[in-house]
Amino acid sequence: MHISYKFYFKKLFLCYCISCMAHSTAISQKLFLHSHNDYDQEIPLHHALDLSYNSIEIDIVAYNNELIVSHDTKHLSKKPRLDEAYLKKIKRFLSIDSLTYDLPLILLMDIKEYNDLTLILLHQLLEKYDPLLMNVKSTTIKPLQVILSGDIPRSLIINDKRFKYFFIDGRPSDLHKNYNSFIMPWISQDFSKLTKWNGINKLSLKDELNIKNKIYAIQQQGKKVRFWKTNDLPEVWKFLYFMKVDVISTDSLKKLRTYLETIK
After folding, report:
1. How does pLDDT run across 170-226, given as a tens digit for each residue?
2. Confidence label for 235 from pLDDT (cuts 50, 70 and 90)
3. Per-residue pLDDT, 102
4. What b-and-e string marks burial along 105-143, b requiring 16 or more CB atoms within 10 Å of the CB?
5. Which strand (E) or helix (H) includes residue 92?
6. In this structure, are residues 139 and 182 in contact, taking their beta carbons and an 8 Å threshold?
7. Which of 241, 116, 231, 137 is nearest to 180 (CA)?
8. Closest CA to 139 of 87, 178, 91, 101
9. How far apart are CA 115 and CA 23, in angstroms?
10. Which element (helix H / strand E) includes 167?
11. Which among 174, 182, 176, 175 has a CA at the least distance from the CA of 155?
C-alpha cells in the first residue's frame, strides 16, 4: 500500500519505517532500492519514501559556508540547501516516538568537489541530528546512516577521528585494503567499466562472468554491491536482481518498484 506524499509527514514515514523492507513479499529483505540523484525527482525525498525506497543519493557542494544540493558548481545560489531540502524534513518524519529500526535509511552523500571544508561543514550540520544518526563508534541501529561517496580520500576520512558520522562508499580498488565492512558497508562500481551491455543487446558470457566475479569478490568481504551507469530497463533490473546485487539504483522509481513486485 502506498501513502501519498500529501498525507501528514508522520504517516508517510511511519509507513516507510515499518514496511519499507516488506513492501512486497517478492522483494528480498536484503535489497536496497536506491534513488539515484534523488533531487532530480519531481518531488525529491517524498517520492522515494512513498515508494519505500531505503537509500537516497544526494549530491552536495560547499558554497558560502553552506552545503548545497547540486551535481555541479553552477548557479549554486539558486539551488536548495541540504538542511532544508532533506535533513529537516526527515527529522520531522522521524518525530514519531516508539519506532524501532531493523535497518537505517541510507543517505548517500556524493561529494562533487572535495575539500576539507566540505567535510567539516557536513559533520557540523549532522551534529544537530545526532540522536537520529548511526556513527562509526557504535553498532547501535539508528534511523539514518550517512555514507560518503564521490572522488574522496577514503583512507584519510576513515582514519580521521573527528568524523564519527561518516561511513564510506568504497571502490573495487579498496577491496585489497580489507576495510572493516561496518565502516565501509558498500563497494560501488561503474557498470560500463565491466560491460557494454545495455539491456537491449545480448550480454556476452565473458561479461557475465566478469560481473559475477566482481559481485562475489565484494560480497565475500561482507560488503554490499552497488553499480552505477546501469540502464533503467526491466532486463537490466532482472539481471541485477537475480545476480543478488544488494543495491539497485534507478532514476525511474515507480517503474523499478512496480517491476520488482512482479518477480516471483
Report:
1. 999 999 999 999 999 999 999 999 999 999 999 999 999 999 999 999 999 999 999
2. very high
3. 73
4. bbbbbbbbeeeeebbebbbebbeebeebbbbbeeeeebb
5. helix 88-93
6. yes
7. 137
8. 101
9. 39
10. strand 167-170
11. 174
